[in-house]
UniProtKB/TrEMBL annotation:
This is Aph1ap, variant 2. The lineage of its organism: Eukaryota, Metazoa, Ecdysozoa, Arthropoda, Chelicerata. InterPro entries: Aph-1, BBIP10. Keywords: Membrane, Notch signaling pathway, Transmembrane, Transmembrane helix. The chain crosses the membrane at residues 6-26, 33-56, 62-81, 110-129, 149-171, 183-199, 205-225. Belongs to the APH-1 family. It is a multi-pass membrane protein. The keyword Transmembrane helix applies.
Amino acid sequence: MAYLEFFGYCLIAFGPSLAMFCLVIANDPIRIIIMISACFFWLVSLLLSSILWTIVVPLKEYLLFGVTFSILFQETFRYLFYQVLRKAETGLQKVAEVGRNGSNEIQPKLDTNLSGVGFGVMSGVFSLINILADATGPGTVGLDGGSTYFFLCASLTTLAFILLHICWTIILFKSCDSGNKPFILFVLISHLAASYITFLNPSKLYAISIPMQYLLLVITFLVTLKCADFRFDQFSSSASSIGGGGGISSHTEIKPIIPSQHLVIIDERPYFVLCKPKLLPLKSIALLQVESIQREAEEKIKLMQQKQ
């Protein structure tokens, strides 16, 4: 039973990210590289947070201090990761084109927003794996006055943070591309708020902390849609037209997407086009008739000269 609970809680926490990896990331080697790089950047931020927590001895007893600076390091390295991706985007695009056997097909812009999966998964692994290791036994949660919902609430909290990391990465990347500073500030504030809410868990106030976490997740998700220029009216009209069996309506307005940064390069290569050969006469029929009449006239003149 303990192992069943272990795998069940693991799937609760990491199920959506695992599905996203299998369906979206695993088929593209470039996205795998981006995800692993994001994991590395998160680990470096954790390392620096640990070093700072070890050096500042008087503040070791204050959990608020460690959490705050850990969040600051995470968001700093998230921004640094954005800068690194933008610098390496051209090279990654060339690698992707070479991997497709030199195809002339125009490839879409690299989807770097999925790097949030790397941040979220590494955050979830370090926050939950040690807790779930105790779920395999021996012992049962709740015998010593603890809550029997401890593992379930920990898994739900980890799931919320993984999804929040994905949303935070999308918001940060889109905001940095467009120069929208309020949304960048929203990422930092919401990250601090989500982490401070977990301070209610030691008091076993799970009925308050878990709904607050997911309420913040819903708000962050709506902000993510706003940053991605998602329009609910277009989605509802498209869904209604498809559901009615009429397909996509011809009156649906298609909003053009104009990149705010970098260049859109279209590779055009000229090719020879073979056509059916057609033989054209060098002389027209009228010209041939004129020449024939002229020759007959010259012959008549020669005959008249010979008779004289």
